[in-house]
């Protein structure tokens, strides 16, 4: 039995929550996953986990053993990175997960600039609005929009963005300018259709209280950039993240609406797993990208 392989399989099963999930993640047969863990239990003469129909549960012995295995495998990985020179010069592959539109507009230009400066680092840039698990999906660093839950991740704030309402001058000349959220009932609004529902309730803040307003619409789109293009073309009023329309607002191709009712800003953060020694490729990217992302988002750190 290859004990290191068996320990790695056990860790993956514990992290993903089931033997079948570990099989898919590691791309090895389910029977192999089950056999390796059984061999490990036989070698130790102790049961490490209870195999439930939906989710496995570690025994008391299993929890302690998994903690030790994690430390051992992290130390081995650190030794290998040191031997390969990863801690002496930025090199290797870096996997980055970012929200799709924010990634295209702000992160991708920074990545291209970074690769000019560090030619020995290759990048896997995942543009997705799905909340990925950094540990399970082997992601080195991610950009997150919104308040962060308590976790073992290290977080660095790089910006504040907000939802803004705007429309083209031509539309406002034709239909008038709303003065309160209730006035939207007499307007055409361009609505964002998400993965699960159409968002036709817009939130506003009045007298320090949040209120939702059901808005009428004639056009529904599933891409934020298309919503902006529709607004510029005069289709109606849109509610989008501020970074999508900053230049258009400055040029007055779009005009802001109901500014006193806009919701509070939303934080943007760079997160990465806590680890004993950060690989140089990740440290180099953080040092390079964080100040540039803050500049692009107009954020001054305290």
Automatic annotation (TrEMBL):
Residue span, HTH lysR-type domain: 1-59
Keyword entries, A-Z: DNA-binding, Transcription, Transcription regulation
Gene Ontology molecular function, alphabetical: DNA-binding transcription factor activity; sequence-specific DNA binding
This protein's record includes keyword Ribonucleoprotein: no
Gene3D superfamilies noted in UniProt: 3.40.190.290, Winged helix-like DNA-binding domain superfamily/Winged helix DNA-binding domain
InterPro entries documented for this protein: LysR-type_TF_proteobact-type, LysR_HTH_N, LysR_subst-bd, WH-like_DNA-bd_sf, WH_DNA-bd_sf
Its job: NodD regulates the expression of the nodABCFE genes which encode other nodulation proteins. NodD is also a negative regulator of its own expression. Binds flavonoids as inducers.
Protein name: HTH-type transcriptional regulator DmlR
Source organism (scientific name): Bradyrhizobium ivorense
């Amino acid at each position: 039995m290859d004990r290191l392989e068996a320990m790695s399989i056990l860790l993956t099963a514990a992290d993903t929550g089931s033997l079948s999930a570990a099989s898919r993640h590691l791309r090895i047969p389910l029977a192999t996953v089950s056999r390796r863990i059984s061999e490990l239990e036989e070698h130790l003469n102790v049961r490490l986990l209870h195999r439930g129909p939906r989710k496995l549960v570690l025994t008391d012995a299993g929890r302690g053993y998994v903690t030790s295995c994690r430390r051992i495998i992290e130390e081995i990985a650190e030794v290998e990175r040191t031997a390969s020179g990863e801690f002496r010069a930025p090199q290797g592959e870096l996997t980055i997960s970012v929200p799709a539109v924010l990634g295209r507009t702000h992160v991708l230009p920074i990545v291209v600039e970074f690769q000019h400066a560090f030619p020995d680092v290759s990048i896997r840039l995942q543009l997705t609005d799905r909340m990925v698990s950094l540990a399970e999906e082997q992601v080195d660093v991610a950009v997150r929009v919104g308040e962060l839950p308590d976790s073992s991740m290290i977080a660095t704030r790089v910006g504040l963005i907000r939802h803004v309402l705007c429309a083209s001058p031509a539309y406002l000349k034709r239909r008038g300018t709303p003065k309160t959220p209730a006035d939207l009932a007499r307007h055409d609004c361009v609505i964002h259709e998400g993965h699960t529902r159409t968002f036709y309730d817009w939130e506003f803040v009045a007298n320090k209280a949040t209120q939702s307003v059901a808005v009428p619409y004639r056009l529904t789109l599933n891409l934020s950039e298309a919503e902006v293009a529709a607004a510029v073309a005069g289709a109606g009023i849109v509610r989008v993240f501020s970074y999508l329309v900053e230049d258009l607002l400055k040029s007055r191709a779009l005009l802001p609406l109901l500014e006193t009712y806009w919701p509070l800003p939303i934080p943007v953060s760079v997160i990465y797993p806590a680890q004993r020694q950060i690989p140089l490729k990740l440290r180099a990217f953080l040092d390079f990208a964080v100040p540039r992302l803050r500049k692009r988002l107009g954020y001054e750190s305290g």
